[in-house]
Design goal:
single chain; two-stranded antiparallel sheet
């Protein structure tokens, strides 16, 4: 650890200076020797570092989006070389190189804050061994050694002996209970953060090595925290637990407001966006405009959720524009005035009310009856008296007409020349 400490010694002094400045503020409120003053100083250090890393986080998000745009090409490579894993990996790396993307971009925030982590570890280790470091002098060193967080000294570890813990003014049971709870919380927050990323914010339509890598990290990181956490001082556990909680909240915000295309989070987001836009008839915020603009630009390459979003706008007589705004479409229904006619146009054509089957049959029956009676009366009036009496028909004549295939009361069918 001395070798690692020497590698990060250039940042030890700035880290110790920041902690001392925050301690002077919180010490005036809670007291200089309290665990609240030193604990909140470490938490504030984490928040300051993560705020400084926001530009790097934004770059990470852009790199992740660039990876998502390569999903169709990755899928083609997988289908083409599905029986040759080595060639598949080579083509994937070639694609990454041509497009300038990096599958390890999700690790950038962790790599960037690792120097601060080791510097803080070196500062707290100096406090535990009674050595001044950076801008922490003897007076601040004595104050930090007296600070306890829920009964556990700031510089105590899970693996410390009872004698060493007693020198810091605490019991071994208190130290191990506090450190064990913090290690469990730290591992659980890391697992939940990675699991949330895999289950909600990943395009599940394409299986790539990047997804397999993220799935492995979901299980590897919590195990690493649990194994190495027993060797971390309480102050370092506070630092790492705080940064995990920050990461989890930051990721929840991104998933909720800017999800990955094709993910379950995007389906939920576009459903909320559809309800909000159809209700108000407009888009609010640059983020929503940017997302709608990207969906419109995709054209036929839209995924299932994006097509559903466009169709939802069409049903509400709205149309997404290339600039990310939403306007009334050309097929929108005109405004209706008080008299029931559309404003500024011809009256709308009213569709007839649909009738049931029984109503249609009853109407047809009543419509046919008077027509048939009228026809019967007219035919009776036109005929002479002699024609009104029917002439008797012989049985042979009836049979001959039936056999010859003649029709009654209409044009006769011509006889076949073969019949006599």
């Amino acid at each position: 650890m001395d070798t690692i400490a020497s590698l990060f010694s250039f940042i030890t002094t700035p880290v110790s200076w920041v902690i001392v400045q925050f301690h002077s503020v919180y010490g005036a409120i809670f007291g200089p020797d309290t665990g609240w003053a030193w604990g909140l100083s470490i938490v504030s250090l984490v928040i300051l570092i993560r705020i400084c890393l926001i530009p790097l986080f934004v770059k990470q998000i852009k790199a992740t989006r660039a990876m998502q745009t390569l999903q169709p090409e990755m899928k083609k490579i997988q289908e083409r070389y599905k029986n040759d894993k080595q060639r598949q990996s080579e083509e994937m790396m070639k694609l990454y190189k041509e497009t300038g993307t990096n599958p390890l971009s999700s690790c950038l925030p962790i790599l960037a804050q690792s120097p601060f982590f080791f510097a803080l570890y070196h500062v707290l280790n100096g406090i535990a061994t009674g050595k001044t470091i950076g801008v922490i002098d003897d007076q601040l060193l004595e104050s930090a050694r007296k600070a306890h967080i829920f009964g556990a000294p700031l510089a105590a570890k899970f693996t410390d002996s009872a004698d060493k813990v007693a020198q810091l003014g605490a019991t071994l049971t208190d130290v191990r209970v506090v450190t064990a709870i913090m290690i469990v919380m730290m591992s659980a927050s890391q697992f939940y953060t990675q699991r949330q990323l895999m289950t909600k914010n990943v395009d599940t339509t394409v299986k790539t090595p990047f997804m397999q890598q993220q799935k492995m990290l979901m299980y590897i990181f919590p195990v690493m925290f649990a194994v190495f956490g027993i060797n971390f001082p309480v102050g370092v556990l506070v630092y790492w637990l705080t940064t995990n909680v920050w990461t989890m909240g930051q990721q929840m915000y991104v998933i909720h407001n800017n999800p990955t295309p094709g993910s379950k989070a995007q389906a939920a987001y576009l459903e909320r966006l559809t309800k909000r836009v159809t209700q108000h008839g407009k888009v609010r915020g640059r983020g929503e405009k940017a997302i709608i603009k990207a969906i419109v630009a995709k054209g036929r390459d839209r995924n299932e959720y994006e097509r559903k979003f466009i169709n939802g706008l069409s049903k509400a007589s709205l149309a997404a524009q290339p600039d990310g705004t939403v306007l009334k479409s050309e097929g929108a229904v005109a405004t209706v005035t008080e008299d029931g006619t559309p404003a500024g146009g011809a009256p709308r054509r009213q569709q007839p009310k649909r009738q049931s089957k029984s109503q249609r049959q009853s109407a047809a029956k009543h419509a046919d009856e008077p027509t048939s009676l009228q026809k019967a009366d007219a035919s009776e009036d036109d005929k002479p008296e002699a024609a009104k009496k029917p002439a008797p028909k012989s049985a042979g004549q009836g049979r001959s007409k039936a056999q010859s295939g003649q029709r009654k009361g209409g044009p006769q069918r011509p006889k076949s020349p073969s019949k006599k």
